[in-house]
Structures are given as structure tokens and as C-alpha cells.
């Protein structure tokens, strides 16, 4: 078997902006099931906050019977659990929308997977005692600044409906891959909401407030909303669950390969159920073949590694596609659901290669 050899390159984050810092993972170089913290994509709306771990307290207030003020030591002494989960920015793959949309022009690397350890948010809410009428849980971060379309200063804050907040795997996390969460990813505490896009997983948690209404902060009611119409807000609805998706990691787009056998490989993930099938086409969608899924035991919230051995016998240019299907029968479409802010891109992945 001849297999294309790739040059040894030390992977690094691809920078989109430095202030605030937005950098994506070189997903084509990820070989393992988890991403090390140095290659974890960075998504920020504002500059990094200033806060002290030594004097860190977490208030839980609002519609509760017994408001709490918890130290890190308090949290570390509570029963914790570890969850392996995909964390994907809602704007992942935004650069592929046609027509183009404004926003960070993410390619395929605004996605991450790792092991998160923390205390279920449910544990804290039960200890505080939810009062009658509680509808949403607002999680506020320490990061703040002005939004692009306003001179007003906001902190980054999001809410969860009570049902999602009480899910046993919604975590107040303090570890990532058996280490304290790196500062740039939310140290000392961040929310982790499996199956939802990353905007829900608020970093640098400042406080948690239970309310009896719908939270309408700018990162809830203006951003992270699907706007299907270019000219108006008709039909708008919130961004929540991750769409079924896949990415081809190798070969890379525009690679030049020799004739012979090549391994096409990548990842597939979903926010509902689990991946049941990944298909590959090497003729721009005319025919499809099932790929081999290598880690079906990736956990309830993990991505699937897949591979396909391709016998490239003829010279020429080839368009390779991947599409995933999940257990709820969601399948990647040939075209994405276009929306004005460019969220949730999940069209079949596509690369072009040349065989010499």
C-alpha cells in the first residue's frame, strides 16, 4: 500500500484576532480523541478578565430558598463527575457560508473535545432550593466590554432553561483533562453544557442567578440567534443544540497525492443521540460508501473517529465529501441552513485533491 506521507509540522493555533483573542484548532493535525489545552480553540467577545483564585467566591441567588456563597474549597469538597464532551463554537465553519456572512471567519477548527470534571449545576441548585416560578438560570462571567453594535458595556451572560440546568451532566467545571482549567478557557470555573453549542458554556463564572422570566441579554436575544432572513428578523429562533456534522481531517484540501491507496479520515459528532453512520464520496456525491467508525464507545457526548481506505487508481482532480447521520435520523445536508449571523454550519464536508 502506498500512503501519502505528510511533512512533520508542529501544529499551532490559527489566529483570527488578537484583541479579543480568537484562534482556532488545527483540526487536521489532531490525532487523538482529546485536544490538549495548548491547541484548544479560543473564542472571546472581550479581553480576558482579571480575577483572583485565592479570593474566589461563587454566589448563587435569585429565586432560591437559601442563597449560597461558595468558595473553591466548598466546591472541591462536593461530589464531582467527569464528562467527555465536544465543545463547538456556534460559528464553526462560518467562512463556508454562501453568500458570505459577517463575524469571525472560522474554518473547521472552532471545535474541541476533552474530559471535563466538575460539580453538576443541579447539585448547587438543589442545595440552594429552587422556589416556585423559577424558569431560567442565568450564568454570568467576569469578562465584559462593549458589543459591536452598542456603546453600552455588558458582561458575558447566558441563561439555561431549568430543565437543561438540572440535567445531571451540565457541570460547573474546574478541571480539563485532569488539570485545572487553563485561565484562557475559564479558570477557575466554567459552565459546561454538553450537546449545546459552546456559547452556552460560560467561562470565568461570576455568579448564578435564578429568574422567573426569559433572560434577554445581548448574547441571548441578539447574538446566538438564527436569523433566516437577510432583511428582517422574521422567523428568528435561538441557537441551542449542536447540529449533526463531520469534518475530513486527511487528506487536506488541495493536497496533491500519488496514485495508490490513501486513508481518508476525520471526525463526526452530533448534539442529539449519537452518530450511526458516516459516508464518504470520492466522486462529488455521485456514489457513497460507508466509512469505518473507529471509536463507537466515544461516550454520549463525544465525537466518532472514522476512516475510509480509498484506492485512487486514476490521475485527475477529485472532490471528496463526508456526511454523517445520527440516531435521530438527522443527516448532513448538501447545503447549509443559511442564516444572517452564520451559526450552525453543517453541510457535508468537502475537499478537493489531485492525484498524479
Automatic annotation (TrEMBL):
Residues 45-217 form the Oxidoreductase molybdopterin-binding domain. Keywords: Metal-binding, Molybdenum, Oxidoreductase. The keyword Metal-binding applies. CDD domains: SO_family_Moco_dimer. InterPro entries: Ig_E-set, MoCF_OxRdtse_dimer, Mopterin_OxRdtase_euk, OxRdtase_Mopterin-bd_dom, OxRdtase_Mopterin-bd_sf. GO terms for molecular function: heme binding; molybdenum ion binding; molybdopterin cofactor binding; sulfite oxidase activity. One of its GO terms (biological process) is sulfur compound metabolic process. This is Sulfite oxidase. It comes from Cytobacillus depressus. Pfam families: Mo-co_dimer, Oxidored_molyb. Gene3D superfamilies: 2.60.40.650, Oxidoreductase, molybdopterin-binding domain. It comes from the Bacteria. Its cofactor is Mo-molybdopterin.
